Amino acid sequence: MKSSISAAEVHRQYSDGVSAFRRQISDAALRVKFTQEADVFFRACALGVWQKDGGSLSPRHVEYYNAIYTKGNPVPSILFWELSGAVLDYPGFRAPDFFARMRACDKVSGSGLARRFIDLTTLMLLLFAAVDDQVSEGEAGFVNACADSLSTLCDRDGLPGGKAPLDVADFVTRPAPAEQASSGAAQVAAEQAPPTPTLEELLDQLDGLCGLEKVKADVKSLINLVKVRKLRQEHGLPVPPMSLHLVFMGNPGTGKTTVARLLAQIYRAMGVLSKGQLVEVDRSGLVAGFVGQTAIKTGEVIQKALGGVLFIDEAYALASQDSPNDFGREAIETLLKGMEDHRADLVVIVAGYTGLMDRFIHANPGLESRFNKYFYFDDYTGEELMEIFRSMCEKNGYTLDERGAAYAAGLLRTLYESRDENFGNARDVRNLFERAVARQADRVAALDHPDKETLMALTQADLEEAAAAS
């Protein structure tokens, strides 16, 4: 469901509400204290609201949280994983310190500020609950509990007034019967969906990839950096700025997309990203043919990638040095703005040939400042190519006899040793496998009643014909 309230609108409503209330405070010292502490109090309340909603966060929660500030106060800039931890660790509602002084002033002046502050708190918490366009029973219960806690303090001090006429229950979203049926079907589908892999399972998948030893080490080092960064924050230690955007450099077929997809899921498992999907594009997926359309097209791709990783293959094609009016530059500018606006829950990985990517990154100061981590993907050796070929056979239910295996190993070793700029690494292996399977199918289809072993066997002859057809 698309939320009807943007983060900018949340900021406007919050700032207007708090500012209007502040103007009603006649006591100068209380007004200063309220100005200094209100944003911190309401941001803590937002954590409580979202915890009662099950703690399931999205990029919009981050945007809402960062919109909770008034003019002149520091603007928050929380990241997704920081917000996730804060919601999880929310200790419970606590009346703000300025509320005691507010009640003391009311005893003297009878201004009724404390009771009006309860109304303001209720409205603001309902605003935070609307992040997903609905108010759950849990969220409404939390809002009521907060209001009751503040009202009890007012009652204890003998301040006039009672419970606010605003009934939070009126704001609870209750689905229509058709929506309930749809929700039930969605729940069944969710229960039948495969479980989200754990970090340990994802690291096992990474280790299971053929070759790429340097890349595997770099990924694990990056994971350790994120882990320690989170631990330092939990212990109140300084956390230096860190960019998770990456540059993948290497020839085609070296596993860049596979590693990017795994990394997206790893970030999701660690709480760095909210969804962990991979959105893969190249220049054609970002650049349009007319002025202004490229920004729209690139912006739509960024929105689709929020909560996950945007993987841009052959990214160097966006920066044409020969054409200053090329629309690729518009895509780069839109991309850089999107990375800044959504830095809390978006990771961008740009990939391509080593030499071209190096020139691409250093051609633009904005790219150079945001992409400072490089992963180098070496070509697969002949032995690694053979390992990939064997893996393809096993996964697809094919077998190799000794002669077929020896021929394939020699063929792939020669392919590696004679490689040129057209060398496709694992792509060449897949092409060989698919051609061999096609030749095997032609051979087996001519047989009467082939048995299981025959249906599975790839022979040297199949491989020879596949190599000749390349």
Describe the structure.
- By secondary structure, this protein is mainly α.
- It has 3 domains: 7-171, no CATH class; 199-377, P-loop containing nucleotide triphosphate hydrolases (Rossmann fold, 3-Layer(aba) Sandwich), CATH 3.40.50.300; 382-468, Helicase, Ruva Protein, domain 3, CATH 1.10.8.
- It is 59% helix and 6% strand.
- It has 20 helices and 7 strands.
- The strands form 2 sheets. A 5-stranded parallel beta sheet has the order 2-3-4-1-5.
- Helix 16 crosses helix 17 (402-417) and helix 17 packs parallel to helix 20.
- The longest helix is centred in the N-terminal third of the chain and has 25 residues, at 28-52.
- The mean pLDDT is 86.
Topology:
Layout: H1 7-23, H2 28-52, H3 59-65, H4 80-88, H5 97-109, H6 113-129, H7 137-156, H8 177-192, H9 199-207, H10 213-234, E1 246-250, H11 256-270, E2 278-281, H12 293-305, E3 309-313, H13 328-341, E4 347-352, H14 354-362, H15 365-370, E5 374-377, H16 382-395, E6 399-400, H17 402-417, H18 426-445, H19 452-456, E7 457-458, H20 460-468
Parallel strand pairs: 1-4, 1-5, 2-3, 3-4, 6-7
Helix pairs in contact: 1-6, 2-4, 2-5, 2-6, 2-7, 6-7, 9-11, 12-13, 16-17, 16-18, 17-20, 18-20
